Amino acid sequence: MTISLLVALVLIIAIEVYTSITNHKARLDYEQKAQRAVEAVEGWRDAYLKVYNMHNGKEDDGGQVEQNKQESYH
User: Fold this and answer.
1) Which of 7, 16, 53, 72 might form a disulfide with 58, Cβ 3.0–4.6 angstroms?
2) Burial 28-41 (b: 16+ CB within 10 A, else e)
3) How far apart are CA 21 and CA 41, in angstroms?
C-alpha cells in the first residue's frame, strides 16, 4: 500500500511539474508576442509622427520644409 501511495505522489508531482513548465512556456510566448506588438506600434507611431511633422513644417533639421514652402511662394 505504501508503494502505490508513493507512485500516486510521484504522478501528482510529475503532473504539477509538467503543467508548471507548460504554463511558463505559454507565458514566455505571450510576453514575446506582446513585446513584438509594442515594437510594431512604436514603429508605426514614429513613422506617423515623422510624416505629421514633415507636413506641418516641424522637421528636426531646423524647419527646412517650412523654409522651402516660403521660398516657393516668392
Assistant:
1) 53
2) eeeeeeeeeeeeee
3) 30
